[in-house]
Amino acid sequence: MNLIDAGNSFLFIIDIQDKLIKHIENKNDVVNSAIAAIDIFKNLKLPVLCSEQYPQGLGKTISQIDVLIEELKVKKIFKTSFSCYSSEENIEIINSFKKKQVIIIGIETHICVLQTAIDLKKNGYDVFVLTDGVGSRNKTDSKLGIKRLSSAGVSLINLEMMIFELTRDSRHDMFKYLSKKFIK
Prior knowledge:
- By secondary structure, the protein is α/β, with parallel strands linked by helices.
- It is built from nine helices and six strands, in the order βααβααβαβαβαβαα.
- Helix 2 (27-43) packs parallel to helix 4 and helix 6 (109-122) runs parallel beside helix 7.
């Protein structure tokens, strides 16, 4: 098990889309955690990637997140498969980051998050799932997804762990700002 290495990681926002989010049991937690994670990665000048599952049918990334990622010029990948790491084009985009640690946030825990995390892990990535930033339509599915992720060797983290691991030292330029803003 590894700690997050800021120089070797990127944030991956999975499928937080218009027609999906309204059915997610803990949607407010997912959205708030995603907004916080984007802000953290923006302030640390770390890369972010976003996926959309069949946007023609499920809509775009929700506006609260879309406006933030557009400002950062975040690359989006589009998919019909449940894993983001399945088409050659998307694999190429993910690999182009040349980072081996992926921090995942998004929906649904037991489907797209799970399949993406396991595929990334199988392909040599060190995968971290932000548990306060993932969700499913019901709590039971989400809990089962988290259990499977843990069994597969995926690291389960929360927002506070992510901040402390990305900064590593209270003297880090951004630690005071991030801790005041996000740590309760």
